[in-house]
Structure formats: structure tokens, C-alpha cells
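In this section we walk through a basic example: taking a raw amino acid sequence and producing a predicted 3D structure, encoded as C-alpha cells. The instruction is simple. Fold the sequence below.
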Amino acid sequence: MATSKLQALWNHPAGPKTIHFWAPTFKWGISIANIADFAKPPEKISLPQQIAVTATGLIWSRYSLVITPKNWNLFSVNVAMAGTGMYQLSRKIQHEYFNEEQQPALAKE
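The resulting C-alpha cell sequence is shown next.
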């Protein structure tokens, strides 16, 4: 039974014999790098970069569900990209606009 499932994966139109498998697989590197950046201070997060990561994740998640054959690897990596991008954006926005420590400093100026 396991052999037939592996053979089905191997011969799938979006399987390991095609670029449709390898492109999303390598795209996981972006999500992994974004997860590694969770430890980065919020002031060092690039707003334009995280907007691009989030938008790319959202757009391509939708696209991966309307193409034939459905590419679940592409879908999952883009959901991860959108999620990590939104988390980083929330960290940046919270730091820039809702940081309690900066409010008194701005009032003194």
C-alpha cells in the first residue's frame, strides 16, 4: 500500500519529477528565513519586504487552488508565507504605532 502511494506521488503531475514540485519546495526557504527573523528586533523588520511576502503568500495561495492539477505543496508554502508575513507586519506595526515607550519621547519634542 505504501509503495502505491509513493508511486502515485512520484507520477503525479505536480510530483518530484516536475518543476511544479521543486519550485514550491525551495520557496519554503523564504518562510523558514522569516521564522528565523522572529527573534529580530521589530525596528529592523522591513515593512515593504513583509508587505511583499504577505501579498505574495495570499495571491499565490488562491492561485494554487484554481490551477490544474491542484498543487498542495504550493498552497501550503504560500499559506506559511502569508502567515509569517502577517505576524512580522503585526510586530512592526505594533512597535511603530502602539509602542508605549515612544509616546512620552514624542511629547517632549
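Looking at the output, two observations stand out. The chain has a mean pLDDT of 87. The helical segments are 2-11, 19-36, 47-66, 72-97, 102-108. In the next section we compare this with other chains.
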